[in-house]
Specification:
Blueprint lengths: L1 E4 L5 E4 L2 E2 L7 H12 L4 E2 H8 L5 H18 L5 E4 L2 E4 L3 E3 H10 L3 H7 L13 H31 L3 H14 L4 H13 L3 H18 L6 H12 L7 E4 L21 E4 L6 H17 L22 E4 L3 E3 L8 H14 L5 E2 L2 H10 L10 H11 L3 E10 L2 E10 L5 E10 L3 H23 L8
Parallel strand pairs: 1-7, 10-12, 10-13, 11-13
Antiparallel strand pairs: 1-2, 2-3, 4-6, 5-6, 8-9, 13-14, 14-15
Helix pairs in contact: 2-3, 4-5, 5-6, 6-7, 7-8, 8-9, 8-10, 12-15
Length: 459
């Protein structure tokens, strides 16, 4: 059995054993996913047009044949078959996307939502426009199906009085699309109905700030009215609050989803016995404010006045600069950055920006053409990807040896917070990347432990 997962984190396993080495490189995974998702044997010319559109036919066929040879050599259990001018799997394939759609067709929205761990190929970047467009179409369609199912489950939970369940499903929706007006409104309302008045107001503040930053607009009128009533409702009141549905349009944003009319709602104020929880929550917030005091990348009053907290350590790994890798290794620098991002995701307290989003911004906004970065240009890039920390790196090739150098810098000032330099044979690349990720996080942690504050905070 070949098991292919694409929702959230991309992986391929055969008989329970994950692929590794060159079989797990972005181009290899892209080929396997495309073959599994497209029905029937895939003709070579279709694959060439998606994965090597900029190469002439002779060079593109050579690249495909080399990739197939590598996959057959390193992972013969994939049993890739060539029939005339087509390529197909020689054994049963399980694809999470198809299982997700089967569960929806079987009227099992809960099972489908549980399987949806994130956007389609969220962590796979191959830098080929045709493949990226194909993946984008798949991603948008699956996101719409997930949204419809999760909204249905949230509504059912609300109607049955399961407010914890409603909050859980609403959070899943918001995590998948932070600009989803419907999901944000439902989450704020469900939190309040559950008795979490402070959490509801905090969620609104986060959403309002996000809209202002991303789209320069305010939340919809009916959401603002909801929050005004929550803020004006006495803590101890048992009187219901009528929420009118006066929905007005803000500047059009094509989200690719249908938004139906919302019926009037009635909110029940949280009872008096919960007031002590609010006081306790406020005390916890005060303690956290002391523990995680803001820090600046180059000391108090330093240039850029960079403020980072334990909740704000969000890192983006930029594409690495290749040196002496050769034409056949054009995907190596992309793969290194992508895999390093995945490794950092599992270490320390760093939140990692999805790599496909970094690459999209990198290409769209012209950063790939820069030969050197200033503190100002790094600050602009960090703002575009919503990161407080950036990883810049170089990868050098010499025969079978690799050297990878990386720096972790402050997003606003460009101040270097940690450095790492690893080297070794190409066939130990995964071990090198593990060492690189561990070294970066250890340096940040060591600096933090020595001062009692996060790294880069100064005296």
């Amino acid at each position: 059995m070949i098991e292919i997962r694409t929702l959230g984190r991309t992986s391929v396993a055969v008989d329970g054993e994950p692929l590794s080495g060159e079989a797990a490189w972005p181009k290899s995974l892209a080929l396997l996913v495309y073959m599994a998702r497209e029905p029937g044997p895939d003709r070579r010319d279709e694959i060439l047009g998606v994965l090597w559109p900029d190469r002439d036919e002779k060079r593109a066929r050579r690249a495909l044949n080399q990739l197939l040879y590598t996959l057959r050599k390193t992972s013969p259990q994939l049993t890739l078959e060539s029939v005339e001018d087509a390529v197909d799997f020689g054994r049963e394939v399980w694809l999470d996307v198809e299982e997700f759609e089967r569960r929806l067709e079987a009227d099992d929205p809960e099972g489908a939502v549980a399987l949806y761990e994130g956007p389609f190929l969220a962590d796979l970047a191959v830098n080929e426009p045709d493949f990226d467009h194909w993946a984008d179409r798949q991603r948008a369609d699956l996101q719409r199906k997930f949204r419809k199912a999760a909204l249905e489950l949230a509504g059912q939970a609300r109607e049955s009085g399961d407010l914890d369940g409603a909050v859980t499903h609403c959070r899943r929706l918001v995590d998948s699309d932070t600009l989803d007006d419907e999901a944000q409104h439902l989450l704020i309302e469900s939190l309040y109905l559950r008795g979490d008045r402070v959490a509801a107001l905090r969620q609104y503040d986060v959403y309002r700030d996000l809209l202002a930053r991303e789209l320069e607009v305010e939340p919809l009128e009916h959401t603002r009215q909801l929050v005004e009533r929550i803020r004006g409702e006495p803590q101890a009141s048992e009187e219901p609050v009528e929420v009118k549905d006066d929905r007005r349009s803000r500047p059009a944003v094509d989200t690719g989803r249908d938004v139906g009319a919302r019926p009037p709602r009635r909110l029940q104020g949280p009872p008096l016995r919960r007031s002590w929880l609010v006081a306790g929550a406020m005390a916890v917030v005060a303690v956290l404010a002391v523990v995680f005091w803001p820090w600046r990348a180059d000391g108090p009053g330093g240039a850029g006045d960079e403020v980072l907290t334990a909740e704000a350590m969000r890192v983006a790994v930029l594409p690495f600069t290749p040196h002496g890798l050769g034409e056949d290794d054009d995907g190596l620098s992309v793969g290194v950055a992508q895999l390093l991002a995945l490794n950092l995701e599992g270490l320390g307290s760093l939140e990692v920006v999805p790599h496909h989003r970094v690459v999209e911004t990198w290409e769209r906004d012209g950063f790939g053409g820069m030969t050197a970065f200033t503190a100002e240009s790094l600050g602009v890039l960090a703002g575009h990807v919503q990161a407080t920390l950036l990883v810049l790196g170089d990868i050098h090739g010499s025969g079978d040896e690799l050297r990878i150098v990386a720096e972790l810098v402050g997003g606003r000032t460009g101040a270097v917070l940690a450095q790492a330099d690893v080297r070794g044979p190409r066939d130990s690349l995964f071990a090198l990347l593990d060492e690189l990720a561990a070294s970066l996080t250890e340096e940040v942690q060591a600096a933090s432990d020595s001062t009692g504050r996060p790294a880069g905070s100064g005296n």
